[in-house]
What does this fold into?
Amino acid sequence: MKRYRRRRSARANFQHFRVVTARYFKQIVSAPGILLPLLLQAPVLVCILYIAGDTESFVNRSVWNANIVLFMLSVMSALMGILNSYREICKEREILAREIFGGLDSSSYVLSKCFVLFVVGAIQCAVLFGGSLIFVDYAFENPATGYLLCYLGLAFVNFAVTALGLFVSALLKKSESAILPVLLVIIFQVVFCDCVITLGEGTEFLRYITPVAWGIAVFGNVCGMNGWTDGYEKEMYGYSPLISLAALALFALMFVLLTCARLRHEFRQKD
It folds into this structure.
């Protein structure tokens, strides 16, 4: 099948991005089967947090219970990110192939997916974090920046795992094949975030490649959890929140670039 010559100007690529982004937003809003789950995810998770979390843990400085709350929040943010993105490319592979043969720039397509899913994730994380504020007093040492940094921590975890989900989707041919990779991503976040499960020597480095661990680190630092009890100190809680946010941004950027590279390589073979 002959592919039309691709227009590589920045203006044309930006036009592709705008058109595909608008189409994707319209697709979400006009399809109840897509919109309803997106609307319900965060409120349902807030209810679960209310039932299972200790709402007074930060006021009482209960290290274990506070870590459980942070663990739940960050894992919930990551869970929304992977569920929103893991099917997005593989389910449209046939349509995407036709559009790329017709001149669509694959990078513009990936960026449009990222932009829309990041907007969705930012809204979901606002609902998740805002909902938690109804019943959890985080007792921030500096409330002026605490609320903003912790929200950004959740949102950036969502962005990083969303980008990872898109990369997984780009690797697969069928959405049915994504179940195992998605389970592995979730299990990896749970086990290696170094929060409720203590990592042994030789595996501690894995927390540095786990987005959830960096999200928890933002909360741990902002809430000043190091020093709550004698002898309690976690290395990542000592990192500046800006370092943790930068690490999450790098994760997201890396997976976006990998996804772009994957699609470019795949469709280059069909010239």
Observations:
- The chain has a mean pLDDT of 90.
- The CA atoms of residues 242 and 264 lie 33 Å apart.
- The chain has one domain: 10-268.
- The first helix runs from residue 10 to 30.
